[in-house]
Sequence to fold (929 residues):
Amino acid sequence: MEENTPQTIFRLPTTYLPTLPPTAEPYSKHRSHHTPIVIDNGSTSIRWGFGTSATPYTSPNAVAKYKERKTNKPLLLFGEAIDSESGVRAQAKTPWEGDVLLNFDALENALDYAFIQLGIDTPSVDHPVLMTERLCSPLHSRALTSELMFELYNVPSLTYCIDGIMSFYQNHLPPPKQPFASNGLVISFNTASTSIIPILRGKGLLSQAKRIPWGPSQSSEYLLKLIQLKYPNFPTRVTTIQTNWMLHNFCQVATDFPALLRELRDPLKLRASEVIVQFPFTLPVTEEKTEEEVAKIAEKRKEQGKKLQEMAAKMMVEKLLQKETDLQYLTNLKETKATENKREWVSKLQAEGLSDEAALDETIKKLDADLKKARKKEAGEADEGQEEPTFPLVDIPDADLDEESLKEKKKQKLLKAGFEARARARREKEREKEEREREEKKEEEEREEDLGGWARKLRQEQEALMAKIKERSKRKAALTDRKSAAAQARMKNIASLAADDRVPKAKKRKGGGEDMFGADDADWAIYRKIYTAAPSSDEEEDLVQLQVIEQKLLAHDPTFTNKHTHASIASQRSALMSAFRPSYEEGDIEGNTRIHLNTERWRVCEAYFSPGMAGVDSAGLAEVIQNLVPSFIESRSRTTPLDFPDDRAELIQNVFLTGSASRMPGVEARLHATLQSLLPPGSPINVMRAEDPTLDAWKGMAAFTRTEEFRNVGVTKAEYEEYGGERVRRWWGGNWNGEFSREVGDAMQVDEPQQPAKAPNFDDLWGK
Amino acid sequence: MPPKGGFKKKAPSDGAATPLTPTLAAQLSYLHQPRPFKNPNYTKNINRRAKNLKTVLGQEREREKTEREARRLEREELAKTDPQAASNIPEEVPTYTTIEAPPSVIPHKHLCDITGLEAPYTDPTTGLRYHDKSVYEIVKGLSASVAKDYLSARGVNSIVK
Fold:
């Protein structure tokens, strides 16, 4: 890696074991006091507590059923406890599936946990419950939640609210005894979606609310995808927990994304913007040996080698001796032929495993040659001076020979041919060697005479070869495209090979209609041309030659360095690419377990403003706000005049951010800039983040349970039994869908205390 | 779980059994904590609980359609007798499906699929957008499947030619 300004390298956070939760607080304070219970059931975290407490219990909203390996006991773990043992996380379930509350077994487990923590020991949960639900929650989710609450826990009343509105309420608390009447545009950053909810005169204007299907979970997944594409061979698995951590710590919203991208075009700036994440790695253990040990090992090896050599020599001597005695014996045998009776002699031969005299002669000859060879070797003589074998029969005409001799002649002929061929090859080799030496000498002379010229010549050769290789790869690339000229030419060749009338008619007649393909060796080249799959042998040859030339240049031309070799030129990467993804040496284990984040740091958050870039076909934050403008700015409205024009203008000028993800750096500045471009010039724009984006929804809910109004907006158990779990009463902080039908709502409202003072034409507002 | 093989041997006890300290996970488990507040007579409806996301959203859409139709009829009915009252009936109740943000109509700058920088060019063979010629070198070297992965990160699922 090239030298660069040292960057801070971030290590993955170490995970801590969860601690035991605090023991449940004494329930006696709340027993039979009907203290409201407030539950903010978020898809990442669930927060719960009595409405009278200052802060809620908070826990990740996930539950895992797990069988402990050692004791085989079933366990039920909730929230952080999931991390207490590895392998549990894989089985964790959350009540939410993306953006929708769907897994009610998990919800039941979560609620059990919450109520246990609250210390409830009565036969039912005898507290009114205020609980969040998704903006315009599907009625199925609501029905099943109500069913759990009323039938399993027997709560006396249940109220649903929208978390974003309640967080806004917490940050704009009205003075006591006065109705909530603030205006603002709430942007609620949930885990799997982002909602935009206008609040007009203290009421959620859900008819104008919008949900963008993009949130931190999608961002994190997108980041993971980008990392996987950038580092396809990353040694360890990158998990979403890790990308979540990167998202929270290193990613931000660019105020002006196009300008930022223009800036990052500069490789130096790109490099400066990066964040390096170091993943854990283990260095391979290399055994360090002291010099003494190395010497010892060498000594040992030497000794062993010596021993082996000695043994081999001994064996050889033994073999030689054996052969010598054999030879002696056989020669003696031969000599006895004269003295002994022929029949006896033959039987003696056969006892030795020899068929006749010829075989005996052969064996003797062979043994003799072997012995001679061995002795020569012993004497340190070269193997070469082999005596030339004679082939006496070859030159005698066949007619002069008998059958036996003819056979022998055939054999000798073959042997002679082989011998001659070998000799020819040897001569050829010698000639080549001489030639090579001559050439080398010539080259050396040339080099010594004119180094510049020599180097030029070689470099030209190198370039020509590189061009050839490049040309070939170009052609290969062109062939993958069906429409390229190269591919078309190839198709033409194939077609003409397949065609019958390849040979012109006139020629055919002349050549007796014979196909002359192949008469010329060059004809066969056509098959190499049309066969694309296999790497051609030319390529290898060229590469070898190139290497030879480069070696020479490297050795003698001082201006030719490693940088000029084909290998380094081919693997050269542009400054931009190496800034985008700096590469490390092959063996650098530490470097190769690093992830460099640069453009991704903004790219991932930019998807909030254009989800399309991550494949989600939806308008982004800015576009949704832009679509809202005509409904809130009188001068931009194309239809009838708006009611409460001042309140409406105030609404869109006051953007309120809530939800954990609103902590993304830069999002406020970006939204400020967005609004500035959308609203009439000079509009006072105010972008505000909740004081505590994570807990303010719960705190707002708790504050609301302390007001008089809370008693009137819930659904009682009797109403649930009458109308079912989907029905709710419409109020400023809750959803509109599934509200009681007008008659029912009116009938029920008769015996309710009067609502706080309303604006005169509120019904118009609510009807919109 | 049904008991497995009745004559399973118990772990040999050597008298000096180590006292088992429950693991952290066991201490954190709340499986056996009392839940007096639960109604013992409640039986969950498994079929209702087992619905998947697709059916739930489909149902939601269906319901919305019928409700809108009902409201329209009601309004028409009322308009015959009392036009004033008819206008009071709300047109639309926002539901989970209706509040979804519309598809984007603003043109967005193309981004380089490899580097994330601005991408003025598109490679005609793979369809990948790229920043400049140095990135194009990389694009040319990509295998078809990797190019497809890059495209799918942008939500483009290539059509087999």
Summary: The first strand of chain B starts at residue 121 and ends at 122.
